Amino acid sequence: MSPRFKQWTAESHVSVSIKGKEPARQPSRKRQRVPSAASLNRRLRNSERKRAVILEAALATFSKYGLHGASIEQIALQADVSKTNLFYYFNNKEELYVSVLRSLLDLWLKPLRSFTEDQDPVEAIRDYLRVKLEFSRDHPEESRLFCMEVMQGAPLILTELQQPLHDLVENKIAVIQAWIDQGKLTAIEPYHLIFSLWATTQHYADFRVQVEAVAGKTLDDPDFFQETLSSLETIILNGVTPRPIG
Fold it and tell me: All domains of the chain, ordered by start, with CATH?
């Protein structure tokens, strides 16, 4: 057999073998597992807890150093998370700061939302004073941070003050005016009642150092707390309660 024939035969054999070869089977794709509702809920709870921890750390850091003095590194260290993990929840320091302030504003305004026209105004104001003093006692850092932002002109939350806060106050002004029209309160300008309630209760948090320097006590002292509450009730309620004629 000639060499050329052998070569031709071998090439023909290869060609036949290739043509006759069965196509390779494609590997079967694994089905993607769909997370269960319980798994999704667990992830959501973990995410909410992590976010809450970061907000708490941010509050403590911003309250101590302010927006410009605080750093993302300090907040991440306080929250025991990496900077990368922190940026998963918040894009930058300013966004984190505004989130903290919004949560504070929501807490701060919660007692005022409870004012309704069908309430006894004396009891409503008494309850408001107690709740706001408790807030000043239990959340002094939050109160001071909000005070600091407002004293600087509220550059990052001015919209919040002009819309949600303004709308809520207008709504409660109407409630207070209804109490006045019904003869349940003395004829006063409702705005100034709200401002007075804010000023007297928040003073004990925003100027805690001054209160302690002068009185030697803070709202953490149960007796001083009760003394403060009773005094504010007397001062404010005596000023807004109608006096008998004659």
Answer: 42-90 (1.10.10.60), 97-240 (1.10.357.10)
pLDDT band with cut points at 50, 70 and 90 for residue 180: very high
Alpha helices in the chain (DSSP H): 3-19, 37-69, 72-79, 83-89, 93-113, 121-138, 140-151, 158-160, 166-181, 190-206, 208-215, 222-240
C-alpha–C-alpha distance, residues 225 and 193, integer Å:
22
Sign of CA dihedral 239, 242, 245, 246: negative
**Do residues 192 and 169 make contact, with C-beta atoms less than 8 angstroms apart?**
no
Closest CA to 202 of 119, 127, 146: 146
| 182-to-84, 233, 236 alpha-carbon distances in Å | 58, 21, 19
Q: What is the pTM of this model?
A: 0.74
* Burial of 144 from C-beta contacts in 10 A (0-12 / 13-18 / 19+): buried
